[in-house]
Amino acid sequence: MTLRVTFSAGLLALAPIGAFAQDCTVEGDPMDLEADAVAAVYDCIEARMAEGYAANGDPVAAEFRSWQVTSTRPALAGPHGERFLQTFANDTAAEQYLKFAEEGVEMPAGSVLAKESFAVKDGKAVPGPLFIMTKLEEGGAPDAGDWLYAALMPNGKEMKIQQGFCAGCHLNWEAQDSLAYPMEDVRLTSQ
Ligand code: HEC
Which InterPro entries does the entry mention (predicted)? Predict the structure, then answer.
């Protein structure tokens, strides 16, 4: 088994921790990466992603990596911009989310899903946004299925997003309370 992933250290050996990041090189078409090659890219990039998201004091960014992971590895999906995605569910959300139920789903208020992302550009993995959905009390956001949508840039700064943009797509999964779930082949089962 050959992993098509190589690591090369950054040049700035004296830079503060995190300021220089090793390159996470990906050879070949990201669509064709095997599961363990994806896992190796993730191993390379995950600490840098986590540090970046948390760099601006966002409370979800500081916490989400201690939540329940919902897939066996990040997976490439189209709708979030050809990125590898991995979703974490907080304590309130985890039990219901991990059922991946298709009918009659009603997530409890206070559920939070945080989805980290990375893309492959010019043969290198690069961190993408952290996407966040928070379930409000009933009536909290009637046009958005009572979900509040947010996103952080890889440096932890809040992105300006339109609720209607995110909800407009997520409401397609009405019977799943706006949840789209990870790609089927990576869903974490038998909790
Ligand atoms: C064009 C459709 C589309 C748009 C627009 C969209 N999403 Fe998603 N979203 C998806 C799909 C499909 C998934 C599941 C993909 C996966 O995880 O593999 C998903 C998953 C998520 C998840 C994980 C929870 C879940 O649904 O399983 C979060 C959090 C999320 N999106 C946030 C956002 C935010 C924030 C925005 C707006 C900035 C947004 N999304 C815009 C399609 C969309």
Answer: Cytochrome_P460, Cytochrome_P460_sp
